[in-house]
């Protein structure tokens, strides 16, 4: 079950057993699934779950909701021209250098992520514009702490040939 969920979420989420089995227990308490244990001579015993009639009815009622949600996720994925994923185990010192390099690059015109992120081979040039939206998410699961950071901005588009430049925003004049 865990491998299947990880596959369906393209590796972005891998549930822990401490998440899955309590969920199955709640489903069983609610009469949505039944379980049976397969006792095995070799290896660990296995617990099998099956939908009850009540579970099938509930599933049928919620399928339209899930279908809509999957459409939203698919549209979200398609809207992004490309998604780059970086995951690496770093020392605190290397992480500190990468974050400082990223911060310095944000202050300049562009950042080459291959020069900022250790082990990142593919050249990815980002050109941040003002304003930059900053989001920080931190969560604790079991004994691990995760911090996710998001930086977002709207890139400037190159002018089309023959197009008039966008008007500059007017700044208020100081009162004299």
Describe what you observe in this structure.
- The strands form three sheets. A two-stranded antiparallel sheet has the order 1-2. It has a two-stranded antiparallel ribbon with strand order 3-4. A two-stranded antiparallel ribbon has the order 5-6.
- It has helices spanning 2-8, 17-29, 53-79, 92-107, 113-116, and strands spanning 33-38, 46-51, 111-112, 125-126, 133-141, 144-152.
- The longest helix has 27 residues, at 53-79.
- The protein is elongated, with a radius of gyration of 25 Å.
- With 176 residues, it is an alpha+beta fold.
Helical fraction: 25-40%
Beta-strand portion reads: 15-25%
Number of structural domains: 2
Q: Please give the count of helices.
A: 5
Shape: elongated
CATH superfamily of the largest domain: Winged helix-like DNA-binding domain superfamily/Winged helix DNA-binding domain
Number of beta-strand segments = 6
Summarize the structure.
The protein is α+β, with helices and mostly antiparallel strands and 176 residues long. The chain has 2 domains: 2-79, Orthogonal Bundle (Arc Repressor Mutant, subunit A), CATH 1.10.10.10; 92-152, no CATH class. The chain has 5 helices and 6 strands; from the N terminus they run H-H-E-E-H-H-E-H-E-E-E.
